[in-house]
Amino acid sequence: MKKSENQHLGVIGILITLAGLIVAVLAWLRPFNPVGPSPLLPSGIVQTQTSPALLTQAIIPSVQPSPIPSIRPSIQCLGREQIAFASNRSGNFQIYDMNIDGSCITRLTDNSASDLLPNWSPDGTRIAFTSDRDRHNVSNNTENFEVYTMNSDGTNVARLTFSGGNTGPVWSPDGQHIAYIHTDQNVLSNYSIQIISLNGSGTISLPVYTEADFMYLGVPEYSLAWSPDGQQIAFVSKSSDCAWGIFVINTDGTNLKRIPSTCYGKYSNPSWSPDGKYIAFAANDLDQTVGWWQVYLMRPDGSEIKRLTNNPFAFDGNAHPTWSPDGQHIALVEGNNEDYTICIINSNSLNMNVNAGSSLVKCFNKPVQSSYDMQPSWSPTH
User: Fold this and answer.
1) How far is CA 42 from CA 37, 45, 58, 81, 111, in A?
2) What whole-number distance in Å separates Cα of residue 127 and Cα of residue 143?
3) Residue 334 and residue 376 in contact, taking contact as beta carbons nearer than 8 Å
4) SS3 state of residue 268
5) Hey, how many other C-beta atoms are within 10 angstroms of the C-beta on 180?
6) pLDDT of 190-248, one tens digit each?
7) What structural domains does the chain harbor?
8) Could you tell me if residue 167 is left (phi over 0), alpha (psi between -120 and 50 degrees) or otherwise beta?
9) For residue 12, which phi and psi values (nearest 5 degrees)?
10) If you average pLDDT over every residue of the chain, what do you get?
11) What is the pTM of this model?
């Protein structure tokens, strides 16, 4: 009897031993798998069990959103300097930019409103401009516009003004302020110069009134230019006894004067040279040639007036001068039978016929003729 019991106990021991061996083998083949992904696995990989003794790794592809077409060309396409401008080549006025050789034309804004008067920040990272995008249905056209800024690639648009009738922004040389024209809502023929601080300290109004240089396609053409030292602003206004003229005022509202002091001719679009020694501007009838707008230079005191262009097309001609950062060139608008394009000339040119195809002149072809590329602004070098 004891022998039989011993045999049974031996069998049981053998079975227990075999069971232990089987458990050990299984444990060796399949490590313990906790619920959820192992913290030792790379992100994006989870453990799944497809058989009792196998570990498989299933890679979950990361889901990417559909690519959004960029309106900004590749960085290899961009030059160290660009020219921003307004154009209606797409139907309504929008802001574009291009390299100074005319390549890489890029549309920066895209909406059904009018975006106009771009102006580069001193560091080349942002552009101020005028738009009626938020007040498009206001009845009085001059009240529609507000001042905005955006990144140089058209992103991160910020609205700066909210009262209506604000346009023509220009940056201060230190990039801390923007000056613009504000329409007096009670007397719509009066316009004042406002200076807004970008650090949130408020807006000041200079004690002068100006008028639009002229109305173009129902849009006022406003002109402000900040002196490179930040001390003065040049602007266009009508006095009681003269036609449109260029005035200069200190940014604290003192020392208002007209330059030049003569009353003949109509002036527009002042633009200070980078070294502060000259002001480029457009003028009509300055040389007693009625109807022809040309680009001139003068000293900040109104002396040494020099004519740079000689475009023979009546009521068009040349306007909107903007300087290159080195002061060696001026970009401007050349008008020819209701077709406006942007050209570049040497700043020391005299009586240049921009339309004559001189080797000293570079004009940029447009994909749409009888359209308007206008209001150029030359970026700083970056």
Assistant:
1) 10, 6, 11, 45, 45
2) 22
3) no
4) strand
5) 27
6) 678 999 999 878 888 886 665 544 444 444 556 799 999 999 999 888 766 666 788 89
7) 16-58 (no CATH), 79-378 (2.120.10.30)
8) beta
9) -60, -40
10) 75
11) 0.76
